[in-house]
Design goal:
Helices cover 19% and strands 44% of the residues. The chain is built from 15 helices and 37 strands. The strands form 6 sheets. The chain has a 16-stranded antiparallel β-barrel with strand order 19-20-21-22-23-24-25-26-27-29-30-33-34-35-36-37. Strands 3, 4, 7, 8, 10, 11, 12 and 13 form an 8-stranded mixed sheet that branches.
């Protein structure tokens, strides 16, 4: 039997080579899997395969020997929301950086050589490229893409030159990631002198590239944009921008269709390019399109022509690869030796994919890189492993907004600058502009020979406004407020022997003062109370939680021992005389020893249901001056110095020399980003000052309360609303937090 090929090639061929072309199309590209399932039924095995964007991903897996059913299982089981959010679990972030992760939503990059700029995309793609690397580990054993079980090509676009780039060799995971890099959504891939983005911008349907490989018959599956969309579908800003970016690819696809013998176009009008969670339905549409009677007729003709009795190539994983040398690429700000120590990988050894995946996580956990990936380079009889780093900018300014009903709106800034004066250093500053402002500045040094050690000098400042209530005949009255000013200058050494454990020691000095305002000064005949002290502190912290704001599993354990030595203390009376001989001052010892202990565990009982036991204890050896007391109350994410959360009491409206809190809470996660929780807590305390509940009789110095709350994870940060109430008090309290805190 002979076969007429395509319009450009009229010759008769008795054993034609089959080329399979899979277009881009975002989530719609999952329909290619349904087409592959039908091709397999007819035992049609392509001799060459090309793809763009989502088509490049499906084609890459098929070229490695995965069957259509295996690819279907991979795609439908993917947590696309998690992959595209690109959020690394908190447990995988080095504990030194956990507090600042994931950072404020708006980021501006700057350094000595470039003007300030916004990031080049919303998604770096760390998680999705790591997944691609895992799925295509076998590809690292081949010299080039022609050596694959099915020779393969994929397309990306160099956004600098505007020309398409054809991947023929190199990291298959990077090729897949490059081909799907939708501009402004994904950060472009930096390769040589190029910046690579989605191949569909230039060539969304790579027929010619498949012909160039040697294909005689082209079978094409097209899930790209319509050639002539309706005006009604182009009414939004995003639809116009999207259409503008792909129009060249649409025009090219129209031309390439002429060279396609069998053109399959699934009916996907009811789906969008972002419907990744509807992969099963989209795959079904691809299968239905391939079962069209006209398509099946041509498939029968092709099957009879090729008469392929060979089974499809099966995917066989390669368990280990011998590596002669490990090379670090892209490290302009960090030391190669430090990166290699973090990786724990060794030259001249066999390597498993799990080893390299763990090494990438350890490097990425320092949060100094936008992305960490790898590829292999073969030179004669040697194989080198290249660790490719995409470093964060030397200088980064992050901006955010936060609101809570205790301190009102906050405008937040965090600025970092690496290698200021010395290498392996970081200047870190944070500012909160609000009615009760805060600020932090730190200069940190990370020794080259110890990637898990931090030496730093730091300064922290806060101003807190607290209302004052007194009890008089006839009720409770608000008389003014006091302003608590706290500053802390300290040096610290922190050692993280493990990713989630830190030991730290610090020495420093604190200045604490309270200014009485708006009538409170007249009532007490006092202007200022102050206490200045030197201190030393030792702390141990374990944090295996999977999220900073709505954990579902993990442990938070923290304990500290602090010794303070009072340098100056006193009262400035209303007549501006200064005295330290009052009864109040004479009660305060010149030293104190403070012990804090906190334990909270999130136990995942079912897939989305957690039980959370809690215990917190804080005590001291000697009675505390008012500036040194533990301020208890509120349910805020970011605690101020000397502040402790407890539902049922308003922020800073209660203080004590020592206390313990025990509680139990239940939490249910639903609809992927929503949380509902409820719990009960009990506070036991001693030697207290009550700034609000002066009419409450605290029997046996105990307060018991219950609370219920609702939470939501958003791109701007967490949103949490809590209602709480004491069992023996009629007053209820609402707590609202919006956005990433200080």
């Amino acid at each position: 039997m002979s076969f007429s090929i395509n319009a450009q090639n009229k010759k008769e061929i008795t054993s034609p080579k089959i080329g399979l072309v899979l277009s881009g199309g975002g989530a719609k590209g999952s329909a290619h899997i349904g087409v592959l399932k039908v091709l397999e039924e007819y035992n049609i095995r392509p001799d060459y395969i090309t793809g763009t964007s989502m088509g490049a991903i499906v084609a890459a897996l098929y070229s490695q020997g995965y069957t259509a059913s295996q690819i279907e299982k991979i795609v439908t089981n993917m947590d696309w929301d998690d992959l595209l959010a690109d959020k690394i679990p908190l447990k995988d972030i080095m504990i030194i950086e956990k507090y600042n992760y994931p950072g404020y939503p708006l980021e501006i990059n700057f350094d000595n050589h470039h003007k300030p700029s916004l990031p080049s995309g919303m998604i770096d793609g760390q998680k999705i490229q790591a997944l691609f690397s895992k799925l295509t580990w076998k590809s690292n054993t081949y010299n080039n893409y022609d050596s694959f079980p099915i020779p393969y090509r994929c397309l990306a676009t160099d956004i600098i030159s505007g020309y398409p780039y054809i991947f023929e060799q190199g990291s298959l995971a990077e090729a897949m990631r490059s081909s799907m890099s939708i501009p402004t959504v994904f950060v472009p891939i930096n390769k040589d002198t190029m910046l690579l983005v989605d191949g569909g911008i230039a060539i969304n349907y790579p027929v010619q590239q498949c012909l160039d490989m040697g294909a005689d018959i082209i079978i094409g599956s097209y899930t790209g944009f319509d050639e002539r969309p309706n005006k009604t579908s182009l009414r939004s800003l995003t639809s116009i921008l999207s259409r503008s970016s792909v129009i060249s690819g649409v025009i090219d696809a129209k031309k390439q269709r002429k060279n396609t013998y069998l053109f399959i176009k699934p009916n996907l009008h009811n789906f969008t390019h972002a419907d990744f969670n509807k992969s099963k339905e989209i795959i079904k549409q691809g299968e239905l399109a391939a079962r069209n009677s006209k398509v099946l007729k041509k498939l029968s003709e092709i099957a009879a022509l090729v008469n392929n009795t060979d089974s499809l190539p099966l995917f066989i994983d390669t368990s280990k690869i011998w590596v002669n040398n490990i090379v670090v690429e892209g490290n302009n700000l960090t030391d190669s030796a430090r990166v290699l120590r973090l990786s724990k990988l060794k030259n001249n050894s066999y390597m498993l994919p799990e080893q390299i995946d763990k090494a990438l996580k350890d490097i990425y956990s320092t949060w100094q890189y936008n992305k960490v990936s790898y590829y292999f380079v073969k030179n004669e009889n040697k194989t080198n492993l290249v660790l490719k780093l995409d470093e964060r900018s030397r200088g980064i300014l992050r901006l955010g907004l936060h609101y809570d009903n205790s301190y009102g709106p906050n405008i937040l800034f965090r600025g970092t600058y690496e290698n200021l004066i010395f290498r392996q250093t970081l200047l870190d500053t944070k500012i909160s502009i609000s009615e009760s402002p805060r600020a932090y500045i730190g200069y940190k040094y990370y020794p080259i020979k110890a990637g898990r050690i931090e030496l730093s000098i730091n300064g922290y400042f806060q101003i807190t406004k607290v209302p004052n209530f007194i009890k008089q005949a006839g009720g409770i009255f608000n008389i003014g407020h006091f302003v608590f000013f706290h500053s802390d200058f300290y040096s610290k050494i922190a050692i993280a022997p493990f990713r989630n454990l830190i030991l730290s020691a610090q020495i420093g000095g604190q200045y604490n003062s309270i200014f009485l305002k708006d009538g409170m000064d007249l009532y007490y005949n006092v202007n200022i109370l102050y206490l200045n002290q030197l201190y030393s502190k030792f702390r141990i912290k374990l944090n295996t939680l999977d999220d900073n704001y709505f954990p579902t599993k993990g442990i938070l354990f923290e304990t500290s021992l602090k010794y303070t030595n009072n340098i100056t203390k006193g009262i400035v009376l209303k007549d501006y005389t200064n005295t330290d001989s009052t009864v109040l001052m004479n009660r305060i010892e010149n030293y104190n020893i403070l012990i804090d202990f906190k334990y909270r565990q999130y136990i995942l009982l079912r897939k989305h249901f957690s039980i959370i036991p809690e215990l917190e204890i804080a005590t001291r050896v000697n009675p505390a001056f008012i500036t040194e007391k533990y301020f208890i109350g509120g349910m805020n994410y970011s605690l101020r110095a000397k502040s402790y959360n407890f539902p049922g009491i308003k922020e800073n409206h209660f203080s004590a020399d020592y206390f313990s809190i025990i509680g139990i809470k239940l939490q249910l996660k639903f609809l992927k980003t929503w949380y509902v929780f409820s719990g009960t807590h009990q506070l036991v305390f001693g030697n207290y000052n009550d700034y609000k509940y002066v009419d409450t009789d605290f029997q046996d110095n105990i307060i018991t309360c219950w609370n219920i709350g609702l939470g939501l994870q958003t791109r701007i940060g967490p949103i949490r609303l809590i209602y709480s109430k004491q069992y023996n008090n009629k007053e209820y309290i609402w707590s609202l937090n919006i956005g990433i805190p200080f």
